[in-house]
Specification:
Elements lengths: L21 E7 L2 H13 L5 E6 L5 H11 L6 E5 L5 H12 L3 E4 L4 H10 L5 H14 L6
Parallel strand pairs: 1-2, 1-3, 3-4
Helix pairs in contact: 1-4, 2-3, 4-5
Length: 144
């Protein structure tokens, strides 16, 4: 296990509690770390969460290996990505097809991430995935 600090820019990860679902946020560029920093600003440090960026020029196989390595065996995991159909999505879906108990949701935003982190205690992974989807949709508002 590695230690993850969204402020450090490292890809290190710590999973402190086995009683909650694990979350991996992976995006194009530094969006994952920015979401992590903002999440901590609002809700404080969160257990069992990793932020994995895909930078320009990164090797996709190495990236896939990093995502798979971040998953704790026998632990439900929700991978949250930025865009459906993008490389983070495609790689996360590939990992989910290979590892049981992994779900993937696209369109990660701060509202979705915050709600998932604050709601995950005691929830099954499919419930958590539905919360992510519903919160992401409900967070979109138009004024005027």
């Amino acid at each position: 296990m590695r230690d993850n600090d969204p402020h450090s820019g490292t890809d290190t990860i710590t999973f402190m509690s086995q009683s909650i679902s694990q979350i991996i946020v992976t995006t194009h560029g530094s969006l994952a770390q920015a979401l992590g920093q903002t999440l901590e600003l609002i809700a404080g440090p969160q257990p069992a969460i990793a932020y994995l960026p895909l930078a320009f020029g990164d090797d996709v196989q190495v990236y896939k290996t990093q995502i798979a390595a971040a998953i704790t065996p026998d632990r439900a995991t929700l991978i949250m990505v930025d865009l459906p159909g993008g490389t983070p999505w495609n790689v996360a879906v590939s990992v989910a097809n290979e590892i049981a108990g992994v779900r993937v949701v696209s369109g990660v935003n701060l509202s979705m991430l915050l709600e998932v982190c604050l709601s995950r205690q005691g929830l099954a992974i499919d419930q958590l995935t539905r919360i992510a989807e519903e919160t992401g949709r409900e967070a979109i508002r138009v004024y005027g």
